[in-house]
Amino acid sequence: MKGIAAALVAGVATVALTTTAAFADETLDAVKARGELVCGVSTGLPGFSNPDEDGNWSGIDVDVCRAVAAAVLGDADAVKFVPLTAKERFTALQSGEIDMLSRNTTWTLTRDTSLGLNFAGVNYYDGQGFLVKKDLGVSSATELDGASVCIQAGTTTELNLADYFRFQGMEYSPVVFDTSDQTVQGFASGRCDVLTSDQSQLYALRTKLDNPDSAVVLPEVISKEPLGPVVRQGDDQWFNIVKWSLFAQVNAEELGVTSENLEEMMDSDNPSIQRLVGTDGDMGEKLGLSADWAANIVAQVGNYGEMFERNVGMDTPLAISRGLNALWTNGGIQYAPPIR
């Protein structure tokens, strides 16, 4: 989810300029030497990055971290997860506290050009929406004039909300919180009439209400929110590894390679599958990894479709349909460059 307010960009950008050069071309070696990937995630968002009572993390964003660990270390469990708020996340990456960020973060021009960071793809196509109590009697965002709106600080949500209400000629009162948990608690306690965030986050936060059926997500989507993993600029090899770890999952789904049939697919005559699983070509060598880097991802984490359905799909509490996140061959816009 989200971006930073324009007022914060200059300060964070200063950190970026002074820190990214120090980490250029060093991340892969550091991760291998440590034997562990350090990955920044949210402070807790069901379906995306959320710890259970024993501190075990799960979610789409968590699986993106695990895929990189599988590619680099051959072990998807060799990850240390660092929970970060929206305001903390970019500084943690710029300073080297984490190796990568995988925390429902929107790819924007400002972030791509001003923070010393690179977005390594999109693992979830999203858009901002509104969650309201059913007893409010509202069926459209155009009926929210004068509403109080719970919102998380340090996010693009704040800017999108201001743009939308100004364009619609409506007024609102923002109620700002630091974390998503605080935001949903404020909504549940009646501090605000409306909670706004990415629609995926709204579905996740609704599950935290005492009675999830008491609230509804309105139909309007007011922004584009391409969410994906982020790395520091200046380390092209690491950028390529994170990017192609995600692309490998998307390509695997398109090619019909899953965690369940991987073993038989190792004997496939399809050249595209052979390059994916490492039985032909030197794809791993080009990335500075072993030949079975992508096979390790599929075996231990699954392809993109498996990852989606396991964490947020129709058989989970979030019950999110693939929509835009379906493959391009199935009416969505998930698409990866070929491995060749």
UniProtKB/TrEMBL annotation:
Keywords on record: Signal, Transport
Source superkingdom: Bacteria
Domain Solute-binding protein family 3/N-terminal: 36-265
Leader sequence residues: 1-24
SMART domains the record matches: PBPb
InterPro entries, per the entry: Bact_solute-bind_prot3 (IPR051455), SBP_3_CS (IPR018313), Solute-binding_3/MltF_N (IPR001638)
Keyword Signal in record: yes
GO BP field: amino acid transport
Keyword Signal appears in the UniProt entry: yes
Assigned protein family: Belongs to the bacterial solute-binding protein 3 family.
Protein's UniProt name: General L-amino acid transport system substrate-binding protein
The organism of origin for this protein: Rhodospira trueperi
